[in-house]
From TrEMBL:
Protein name as annotated: Putative thiol-disulfide isomerase and thioredoxin
Top-rank taxon: Eukaryota
PROSITE patterns attached to this UniProt entry: THIOREDOXIN_2
Record key words, sorted: Isomerase, Signal
Segment forming the signal sequence: 1-29
């Protein structure tokens, strides 16, 4: 009787270990999603950021990068728990020739970033280590809109780059959401500032308006308002 109990117990342990390893393997496989012509547009339109690895199986450099890219994906997913925030995807360019041609992929592997459904022109040229790629994606996820606590301070913003100052009632407005998305897309071209306008504010500046300041503008200059 005791032998039967031990045998059953060992079998149960074996089943539990099998299920655990199967789930771990499945989770690992899902860290990087294989993108094809049938799911490419759906995936890049669903996430704020998509980091793409365009590869070829026969390419030695693609083979070297694959596990590193997988490790970077796991590291980022451990940090970013918010849904539809970031996706790591891979495209087999030998099979998905239409996708490769559309994005002008001529060498392997090529890493590109998609932001809010738009493929960035510049490819990733940083270090191809898991840590470097993780830090790059986390940097890209940072909010590009700087909050200015007091409206008076916004008038003294001076930048080397053009600046856009958004005056909104709060961050939950549709106008602010659009402003933040534009800031994410144009992070290399402009600086973006959010100026809160709480209820009862007596400022002459109209709510949900955007003011443009040219580079190195000084207090007293006339701004363009949109």
């Amino acid at each position: 009787m005791r032998c039967n109990v031990v045998s059953i117990f060992n079998k149960l342990i074996g089943v539990v270990l099998f299920l655990f390893l199967s789930r771990a393997k499945q989770a690992s496989a899902e860290s990087v999603v294989a993108l094809t012509s049938s799911n490419f547009d759906d995936h890049i339109g669903k996430y704020e950021l998509v980091f793409l690895n365009f590869y070829a199986d026969w390419c030695r450099f693609s083979q070297i990068l694959a596990p590193v890219f997988e490790e970077a994906a796991k590291s980022v997913h451990e940090v970013t728990k918010e849904p539809n925030k970031v996706l790591f995807g891979k495209v087999d360019c030998d099979r998905e020739t239409s996708i490769a041609a559309k994005h002008r992929i001529t060498k392997y592997p090529t890493l590109k970033l998609v932001r809010n459904g738009m493929v960035m022109k510049r490819e990733y040229r940083g270090q191809r280590s898991a840590e470097a790629m993780k830090n790059y994606i986390l940097e890209m996820l940072k909010d590009q809109v700087v909050e200015v606590p007091h409206e008076a301070e916004a008038q003294h913003v001076e930048e080397k780059k053009p600046a856009l100052l958004g005056y909104f009632a709060g961050k939950d407005s549709e106008a602010y959401t659009t402003f933040r998305r534009v800031a994410s897309d144009l992070r290399d071209d402009c600086n973006f500032y959010f100026v809160a306008r709480p209820a009862g504010n007596t400022s002459v500046i109209t709510p949900d308006s955007i003011h443009f300041k040219p580079p190195r503008s000084k207090f007293g200059e006339k701004h363009e308002t949109y």
